Amino acid sequence: MSSARSGPGPQVRYPIANDARLQQLSLDEARAAIRIEAEGLGALAETLDGAFVALVELIQRAPGRVVLSGVGKSAHVARKVAATLASTGTPAQFVHGADASHGDLGMITTADVVLMLSKSGATAELEPLANYCARFGIPLALMTARPQSRLGQAANIVVALPPAPEACDVTSAPTTSTTMMMALGDALAVVLLRRRGFKAADFHVFHPGGTLGSALLTVGEVMHRGDKLPLVAAEASVASAILEMTSKGFGCTGVIDENGDLLGIITDGDLRRHMADGLLQQSADAVMTTNPRVISAEALLSEALRQMTTLAPRVTAIFAMDGARPVGIVHLHDCLRVGLA
Fold first, then answer.
1. CA–CA separation, 290 and 293 (whole Å)
2. Which residue in 68, 103, 218, 286 has the fewest CB atoms around it within 10 Å?
3. Residues 246 and 165 in one domain
4. 147 cis-preceded (ω within 30 degrees of 0)
């Protein structure tokens, strides 16, 4: 038996067959399957037409939700597409085709748009849902490889999958077709989020947990504000500035004018550079560094981290601004605390 490395990370050993021919055959078959699916995606991109645009505009205008439905493998894809839409600003939910006629039709309202996924367009379990849409005037769209099918005839919009072989030629198990459906769902979500002006900060609202949540935090969500802000007036003494720096614990203090606008910053380095007799009696604006590095409170925390750690000179804290006025401060330790650094 031999071993192989699993991925680019730490080496993980596991047994594989010593038969080189069998190893190569496995790789060849896997690559062929991936190429078949990739060709299907290429054909999908080339054949996408006005029906897709009509679906985008229908969903954008709808006052309710997008209801995704399917059966079998298409149901798994529909559930994922619903989750992607919902997380990118398009309210969506999943209703299983087999459950719809057993009470789940009550989840669907006349304000909604229904999007069914069915490669054959002849999925019997979806027919009650199609009839329900027709009865109550609910817009119905269909992703299918057979636009002229029964469900295709019932739908208001049909987004067609191009002819493409499934990756598995032994059983014709749904592979290429479900990959194309998944890609169509992703494309739908991307186009809709751009049309809605959906931003990374909006995305964070729906993804507060995990690494992704940390990466999408804004400065305003993490910064220290109010009485925790280290600030002194321009005419305050350096002694007062040192007390402010010590009590607030950020290793710096901002210097503000009578309007509360930021004039500069005093750091430990500034104090060392001005070390001389009478330093404590000097005014804060006499020793401050002007034009300090600042950031908008609406910026991503990851941008604050980048500025603190990659720009010269490197700093450990940065003031968050609303116009010319400091409204918060972020320390490098805050980035560590939320798992960003």
1. 9
2. 103
3. no
4. no
pLDDT band at 203 (very low <50, low <70, confident <90, very high): low
- For residue 299, is it within any domain? yes
**158 within 8 A of 145, measured Cβ to Cβ:** no
Write down the pTM of the prediction.
0.63
Q: Contacts by 30-36 with C-beta closer than 8 Å and gap 24+?
A: 32/167, 33/167, 33/168, 33/175, 34/167, 36/164, 36/165, 36/166, 36/167, 36/175, 36/176
Q: Treating both helix axes as pointing N-terminal to C-terminal, what angle do 176-195 and 73-87 enclose, rounded to 10 degrees?
A: 20
Residue found by looking up tokens 């059966």 in the block = 71
Compute the 3-state secondary structure of the chain and give helix, strand, coil in percent, each to the nearest 5.
Answer: 45, 20, 35
CB under 8 Å to 197, separation ≥6 — which residues?
none
Q: Say whether both 122 and 61 belong to one domain.
A: yes
Q: What is the CATH number of the domain that holds 329?
A: 3.10.580.10
User: Residue 259 corresponds to which tokens in the numbers above?
Assistant: 């309007």
Going by the DSSP 8-state scheme, the letter that residue 74 receives in this structure is H
Same domain, 32 and 181: yes
Helices within the chain (DSSP H only)? 20-47, 50-61, 73-87, 97-100, 127-136, 150-154, 176-195, 200-206, 210-215, 219-222, 238-248, 268-273, 284-287, 301-310, 332-337
pLDDT digit string (tens) for 242-269? 999 999 999 999 999 999 999 999 999 9
Q: Tell whether 211 is covered by a domain.
A: no
Boundary (domain end) residue, out of 166, 197, 228:
197
Residue 215, C-beta contacts closer than 8 angstroms, at least 6 positions apart:
300, 302, 340
Do residue 150 and residue 242 come from a single domain? Answer: no
